[in-house]
Write a structure and sequence with these properties.
This protein is an alpha+beta fold. It has one helix at 31-49, and strands at 4-11, 14-21, 24-30.
């Protein structure tokens, strides 16, 4: 994930994350959303490289 920066902050008692790509804000996510996003990236990488899940 070249050029991606994730910054955490608390908004009304909820941990949220700002996601930046190449210095531009592209969105906000909660922790669950961030974890799901990382899982999708990992699955796509495994499909692209032909790796098997353990």
């Amino acid at each position: 994930m070249k050029g991606i920066r994730i910054v955490g902050f608390v908004d009304r008692g909820t941990l949220k994350f700002r996601v930046y790509r190449d210095g531009q804000l592209i969105g906000f996510m909660t922790l669950m959303g961030l974890l799901e996003w990382f899982e999708q990236i990992e699955e796509a990488h495994q499909l692209a490289t032909g790796e098997q899940q353990a």
